[in-house]
Amino acid sequence: MIRHMVNLKERSYPICITTSFDDFGKTFLSLRTGKKLLIVTDENVDKYYSDICSKELENNGFEVSRHVLAPGEQHKNLEAVYGIYQQLVEYKFDRTDTLVALGGGVVGDITGFAAATYMRGINFVQVPTTLLSQADSSVGGKTGVDFNGHKNVIGAFYQPKLVFINVNTIKTLPKREVSAGLAEVIKHGLILDEEYCYYINENAEKIFNYDENVLQYLAKKNCAIKGSVVEEDEKENELRAILNFGHTIGHAVETVQNFSLLHGECVSIGIAGAFRLSLYLGAVNEAAVENVKKMLLKLELPVSLPGLDVEKVYSHIFYDKKVKDNKLKFVLPRRIGEVFQCNIEDSELIKKVLFDLSK
């Protein structure tokens, strides 16, 4: 088992990276929590991993209950959180007890928000089962739900007690979802580690063949990069905003397309857009733009969306949480492995980029 610590003083927690659930119960015991656990999962993940996780926990003395959500971003709302609250109250959970998020980013976000707000905060453990959640959303303490079609506008920063990553869970995913997860994986390299980008590019075939050594390295590297940023800026006052690279356009595309595209696919389109915007500002050259496009395409990710509604996407960008005083703040590349933040008020320039993405 590989262990990595996210160091946030009294909110510090371990990330455990392994290839099975064999040590899940023992690892949980080390947290010294109460004995009641509620596993929150969705209908897709439930049939694969709920039983084995429950058994591991019960064998180590825990009382385990289960709450199964409908899958998909369209169900990431306050109603889902309400259902969790009902079960926690019914089973008389107190602050020493724990919510366990078993699933992808949607399950993690919903469960984390429920944990942050039930009794003003109870224990919370992330068990991410998708590449996207293993690479990104399970680490850092961002929780929340969508509201009236706007992504993640209700939420809280709330750190887990533990992140337990079994890299082999991604074997049950459709290939499209693996590709979508790779958008967040390569994002970390694009913002902070050029060498990591090229490692991902060179090992794409091994990733798609579920090479355990490569998958564990990816998980460790992602957690180390994201963890280092979160340690410096836990609540996104400045530096942590760079983790939103590709998300300003990506979230708007995701919303306008009514979540018919996967989150990582939209982030990939957003990354392509960020490089084009940086090109027009003179910060990167055409070669860098083409190089990144080739990397994304090799990972079977989209770099454009023919027929994209430019005006609608532009309008939705202003719901982004980085908008201040009606000014759009973008995270843009200076080169592969380095980014900068800047406000852009030129609406025609932004629309020009969106038009490029629509072809």
From TrEMBL:
It catalyses: 7-phospho-2-dehydro-3-deoxy-D-arabino-heptonate = 3-dehydroquinate + phosphate. It holds the Pfam family DHQ_synthase. Keywords: Amino-acid biosynthesis, Aromatic amino acid biosynthesis, Cobalt, Cytoplasm, Lyase, Metal-binding, NAD, Nucleotide-binding, Zinc. CDD domains: DHQS. NAD(+) binds at G105, V106, V107, G108, D109, T129, T130, K142, K151, T169, I170, K171, T172. It is found in: Cytoplasm. SUPFAM superfamilies: Dehydroquinate synthase-like. Binds 1 divalent metal cation per subunit. Can use either Co(2+) or Zn(2+). GO terms for molecular function: 3-dehydroquinate synthase activity; metal ion binding; nucleotide binding. GO terms for cellular component: cytoplasm. One of its GO terms (biological process) is chorismate biosynthetic process. Zn(2+) binds at E184, H247, H263. Residues 181-323 form the 3-dehydroquinate synthase C-terminal domain. It comes from the Bacteria. Residues 68-179 form the 3-dehydroquinate synthase N-terminal domain. Pathway: Metabolic intermediate biosynthesis; chorismate biosynthesis; chorismate from D-erythrose 4-phosphate and phosphoenolpyruvate: step 2/7. Its cofactor is NAD(+); Co(2+); Zn(2+). Its EC number is 4.2.3.4. Belongs to the sugar phosphate cyclases superfamily. Dehydroquinate synthase family. Catalyzes the conversion of 3-deoxy-D-arabino-heptulosonate 7-phosphate (DAHP) to dehydroquinate (DHQ). This is 3-dehydroquinate synthase. It comes from Ruminiclostridium sufflavum DSM 19573.
